[in-house]
Amino acid sequence: MNHFELFGLAEGFELDTRQLADTYRQLQTQFHPDRFATAPEREQLAAVQRAAQINDAFTTLKTPLRRAEYLLSLRGSDIRGEQQTLQDPAFLMQQLEWRERLADLKGDADPEGAIKDFRQEIRHDHQALMQRLADSLTRGEDLQAADCVRKLKFVDKLLEELERFEDSLFES
Questions:
Q1: Surface-to-core class of residue 114, CB atoms within 10 Å of its CB (0-12 exposed, 13-18 middle, 19+ buried)
Q2: All residues at 6 or more sequence positions from 121 whose CB lies less than 8 Å from its CB, including other chains
Q3: Please, which pLDDT band fits residue 1 given cuts at 50, 70 and 90?
Q4: What is the value of pTM for the model shown?
């Protein structure tokens, strides 16, 4: 049973997160290992395994990038954990520009304002990539979807680095 089936959801990128959360709570209540504390050892083990499966499925489906990777894996394109390099020259140039801007923030006269502007720009690009990902998955364009996932992973890492840099400003 795949993660979508486990939660009674249609297989696709777009999903009802409220329904996902509600079903998760129901399944957790139904299969929580504590409910099987007095059951035979075999049933206890099965409950622990089922609870772990439910947790893993929920974690995967609630996060858009993980959900996209999982959906691609169901379609035969498993890119989870891969280290493939992007081949898009325009995006590679964008990465370099972002890296330079991040490095330049350290010497900016108003780093807080510069961080805010930079974050807004990156989030805008992130939203555009997420829309492209959703569209690609809907149309069954798995190669383009995989490319979007790779790009979004980079953008997410950049946002994390920006967050760490911002935190370091307040630690001094």
A1: middle
A2: none
A3: confident
A4: 0.85
CA distance 47 to 52: 9
Which pLDDT belongs to residue 153?
93
Rounded to 5°, angle at Cα 69 from 49 and 25: 40
Q: Where is average pLDDT lowest: 38-42, 72-76, 127-131, 137-141?
A: 38-42
Q: Is 133 exposed, middle or buried (0-12, 13-18, 19+ CB in 10 A)?
A: buried
Distance CA(40)–CA(111), nearest Å, equals 61
29 vs 24: CA distance, rounded Å: 9
Question: Could you give the CA distance from residue 71 to residue 131 in angstroms, rounded to a whole number?
Answer: 16
Q: What is the CA radius of gyration of the chain?
A: 20
Which range is most confident: 30-39, 75-84, 86-95, 141-150? 141-150
Provide the 10 A C-beta neighbour count for residue 140. 9
Q: Which amino acid is at 23?
A: T
**Structure tokens belonging to residue 67:** 């959900």
Instruction: Return the structure tokens found at 151.
Output: 């790009």
Count Cα neighbours of 25 within 13 Å in the Cβ-side half-sphere.
Answer: 5
Q: 114 in the Ramachandran plot: left (φ > 0), alpha (ψ -120 to 50) or beta? A: alpha
